[in-house]
Amino acid sequence: MQKYRKYNGRFLKFFCLCATILTAAPTLAHGEETQIEQDRRRLGNSGPLIEQIDPATVRDSQRAAEAAEAEKKGDDTPDMSDHLLGNMWGARDWMAKHGISFDIQEVDELWGNTTGGTASGADGASGSGTGPAYDGVTMPTLTVDLEKLIGLKGGTFNVSALQLRGRSISQDHLANFNPVSGFEADRSTRLFELWYQQSFLDGKLDVKIGQQDLDTEFLVSDYGALYLNSNFGWPMAPSVNLYAGGPSWPLSSPAIRIRYRPSDKFTFMFAAADDNPPGNRNNSFGIQNGGNSADPTNQNTNDEDGANFNMGTGALLITELQYALNPQPDDMSHVTKDPGLPGIYKLGGYYDTAKFPDYRYNNQGKALGSAADTTGIPRWDRGNWMVYGIIDQMIWRPSLQSPQSVGIFARATGNGGDRNMISFAIDAGINLKAPFKGRDNDTIGLGWGIGRASSGQRRYDRNSGAPVQGNENHLELTYQAQVMPWWVMQPDFQYVWHPSGGVTDWTGNRLVGNEAIFGLHSNITF
């Protein structure tokens, strides 16, 4: 463990030194773009108005929409009509002049399962897997453009917090591999992100250092981000295979992220982060004597306030290469020559240097879960990896200036099966932007996904006499509607076949049934 502390400390010191040396480099117009803003622009603003991965992507996609509208109008003055509190009696205008922005995202959801599911431990024998549930999150964010504030070109500072409430219907009643909502989280009030970003080389290179959530930049399908099921955001494999899901909503880790954009077509990203935000290791997975029954997701263990800043476990190294096909001009309103239908293609992968419990063997080399297993303690295996590919492609639009378009997406992940619960997963879908006249910011979509239990998990099931897990399939039909400039509503329907690939309910005698889930999602920007 001391070795990893020493390694991570030297790693961050090295890049902090690099950032100090290059601080004076100037930036260009796109130098301050978030990854979501860049993708939105390259896709010609054909993605959903709000990307529903987590509150951070909601915030960034809202800002991207504002930037696109300002570009269209040729006006740099911030338009606060899409904020419920407007310019806050002049306070936001004053802050904008000094490079300061303050946003509050409010997300509230109602969910109900009408069939299948399982009772939670608190329900007892009289409980049911059906019924309603509520979850909500409030996220305030302060962002500072240091060039406007103190003249430091290319410098950006960001800090955000979370107030989480309600119950997770997935954790309590659905027994799925991944939650049906990317906004479900354990109740807490916590620090979320705290980072500094510096741009170099006329905006072609930027470096971000600090407490970060990686799922706003890596593994993102911009069309897939319309959907509420968390599998379409931070996908199934890293969510269940990494410690506490890795540095992803609602957790973040000390990290350094490097992004290089030699042209508008190519983007290269790399990040090194602590792999285990809360630092819990000995009972983080179900394979470890049932896991952490008091905190199954390990979101609050050791780190309920988000200020643990764990640096004592392994390092998660993740990289991604992006290619933009036919990136769209900044302003399509005056374009006469067809630039072609846009698309973004991504290849990436990660390697985690930590040790992980083996699903096949115990610490004595015997088959885990078998009659010969007298300890029930898995063997530790060094390292873990995953590779992935993502496609976002527009396939139709009636005219260059029309807000209407059809886009498709697909994402596949794959990894080893000896130390992971999921070995393969794929998501895909089709979106229609501006489905009705006068509803330019609305999007309707139909998405599907599948996750496959790993060979190690299936072997453990056979050894222990449990039902052998296979594939879980999920289907989602959703409609994102901009009710007011500051308010987005999203009715949602999902159907899940074979939750967790086939596991027993609270009785231990029958499998959890297929689930038909209805939801209503609300997002307000204050």
UniProtKB/TrEMBL annotation:
Among Pfam families, the record links this protein to:
OprB
Indicate yes or no for the key word Translocase: no
Q: Which UniProt keywords apply?
A: Signal
Q: Where is the composition biased (Basic and acidic residues)?
A: 69-81
Query: What is the annotated signal peptide range for this record?
Result: 1-24
Q: Which domain of life is it from?
A: Bacteria
Q: Which family does it belong to?
A: Belongs to the OprB family.
The organism named in the record is: Acetobacter pomorum
GO terms (molecular function) for this protein are:
porin activity
Record's GO cellular component, any one? membrane
Please, one GO biological process term? Answer: carbohydrate transport
Report biased composition (Polar residues) as residue ranges: 279-301
Q: Where is this region: Disordered?
A: 57-81, 277-307
Name recorded for this polypeptide: Carbohydrate porin
